[in-house]
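Reviewer comment 2.1 asked that we show a complete input and output for one of the modelled complexes. We chose the phosphoric acid mono(formamide)ester case, as it is the one discussed in the main text.
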Amino acid sequence: MSDENRIPSRKDLLDIASLSVEEIEHLLKIAVPFKDLFKRSVKKVPALRGKTVLNLFYEPSTRTSSSFEVAASRLSADVTNFTVSLSSVVKGESIIDTIDTLQAMRTDYVVIRHSAAGIPNLIAKHTRASVVNAGDGFHAHPTQALLDMFTIREVFPESAGRKVLIVGDILHSRVARSTSTILNKLGVEVGVLGPSTLVPAARHGFMRGFKDWDEAFAWKPDIVYLLRVQLERQGEPFFPSLGEYHRVYGLTTKRYQRVKDEGIYLMHPGPVNRGVEIDNEAMTYERSLINTQVENGIAARMAVLYWLKPDTGSEARGGAGAKES
Ligand code: CP
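Response of the prediction step:
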């Protein structure tokens, strides 16, 4: 990691919008040797020996929480997984009191997922630890965006000008916000397809909207990125039924055949709703990058933890705090 000082470190990673293209390129670059480590019999480096990483997940997670745990261990940090359901949070302790308690333990890195947008920014202002946003409400999921971009660069090293079609629930998706932001920053074209209730025209911004799969296929996407239907974030239904969603917007057998015929790559952040966003058989597609995304999540998160630097001064600093598009 000889170039570690070329791009100054930040204290926190709260979103993609506030990162410069140079910072993103730096993180993608330093993730490469971390992925190379996976092929070795000894997969650890001593970079964060003596540091502590606290995983603080107020919402369920499989991939992100385990990936941060593995990433921190491979950097030789000590990892504590804070189980919210077993903590004093259930007795009414406020998040700031929880953080003050954890600060007294001199944690160096706090990885946080929360259902409320902005909680990681709030915590970043109240702690000297480096804060990594592992997903906050509808707002941002920056490490998902970094691992997605890293995965795209593996198949398309010259990614600028490539086309990614994002399908599904743009409205509630922090993944869509962060991943579309990183794609746009690095010159990748982004298209969107989904029910107008979940893909409102007002949210298109730099993204090109399509009315149906035929129109989207005619655009010749290089990658189809399927989003999870997030029923837990939809108070009232945004479409008639899951069966109807699958019929109109899902990757059905017929659409999967077209994806294969045209050699389009498939991505999905997980967890996958089989039979809703995607047919079972598409899960074994040779150009599915879904498992590669999971593997690359470790390398991308190692790069993030390695790059961030906790505040060692007497004053806690705030985070960058910009919003995803
Ligand atoms: N992609 C993602 O955030 O998955 P988890 O909810 O399992 O962490």
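The chain has two domains: 4-141+295-307, 142-293. We note this here for comparison with the apo prediction described in Section 3.2.
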